[in-house]
Design a protein that fits this description.
single chain, alpha+beta, Thiol Ester Dehydrase, Chain A, six-stranded antiparallel beta sheet, 34% strand, Dehydratase
Length: 140
């Protein structure tokens, strides 16, 4: 079996963008998979009581979608060497069939001597960044 190859990367190369609609149904599925049943992810009243604008997506779900941006581009999740991000703003998920649109972009920011590359990822919801310092180290 051959492993897909990624062409040589250069600083400034852009990763194809990814747009994902996060719905309440996805939050329920993610809660079940992650065992994170915090009511801020499913209970509107509770979310408001603790000062949130509404039910919010799990931060780790948002981060995972950013990782998907990179692994889809690479064609092989094993080429993702390292990935980290900070949660800067919540993704508020409305109680409708449309959900919340989260848009991901990425750009090669550094080529390292060891052959890996750093990709800076931007995640936006409602025009605002929701992940800070989202960076992936990849082996092309």
């Amino acid at each position: 079996m051959s492993v897909p190859t990624t062409p040589a990367l250069t600083v400034g190369d852009e990763v194809p963008p990814l747009s994902v609609r996060v719905t309440r149904e996805q939050l329920v599925r993610y809660a079940g998979a992650s065992l994170d049943f915090n009511p801020i992810h499913w209970n509107e009243r509770f979310a408001h009581e603790v000062g949130l604008p509404g039910v919010i997506a799990h931060g780790m779900l948002t981060m995972a979608l950013g990782g998907r941006l990179v692994t889809d581009w690479l064609g092989d999740p094993g080429r993702l060497v390292e990935y980290g991000a900070r949660f800067t703003r919540p993704v508020v998920v409305p109680d409708d069939d449309t959900g919340a649109l989260v848009e991901f972009t990425g750009k090669v920011a550094e080529i390292r001597d060891d052959g890996t590359a750093r990709v800076d990822i931007t995640a936006r919801f409602d025009g605002r960044t929701v992940l800070g310092k989202a960076q992936a180290v990849v082996r092309p």
